[in-house]
Write a structure and sequence with these properties.
alpha+beta, five-stranded antiparallel beta sheet, two-stranded antiparallel sheet, globular, binds 2-phenylethyl (2E)-3-(3,4-dihydroxyphenyl)prop-2-enoate, binds cobalt (II) ion
Amino acid sequence: MAILNILEFPDPRLRTVAKPVSKVDKKIKQLVADMFDTMQAANGIGLAASQVDVHQRVIVMDLGDDSIGPRVFINPEVEVLDDSTNPYDEGCLSVPGFYETIDRPAHVMIRALDGDGNPFEEEAHGLLAVCIQHEIDHLEGKLFVDYLSTFKRQRIRKKLEKIHRQNA
Ligand code: QAP
Ligand code: CO
């Protein structure tokens, strides 16, 4: 059991593009376990390895009781299935305390490896579709604040920088 440090916006390390996992070995399984501990301790529903400064394509998710419980996505990809979009009030463990409505494709096909390295695909809509796209963005070095106006993003950045200075 290990709780890892979560990087916060505007930390430049969050901009790193993650590399594909070549083999789901003991080291990756340990990372997945530590990411679940970290996400649960922080009351999150999704966490990408990039957020704990590990730049490999690993995501953990636990959307709560209306879904299937803890999930792992390794080397995930999404294919957008139609033109519909869905506005959702998104937050992020790397942007604590801020929530903004973001429009994303509503209906996607997810292809990934599970926590044992076995490939699977799953059609997604609703919160799962929102969350997987949010987390894959992290693996590309992208954050939900990048979809906001420059003005809103700068305001969030200044507020978080102030909090970080106060905590230092
Ligand atoms: C990403 O976000 C997500 O500000 C996961 O103070 C969010 O787990 C995908 C959290 C919404 C889809 C919809 C945020 C916890 C957790 C905070 C999270 C906070 C404490 C965010
Ligand atoms: Co996030």
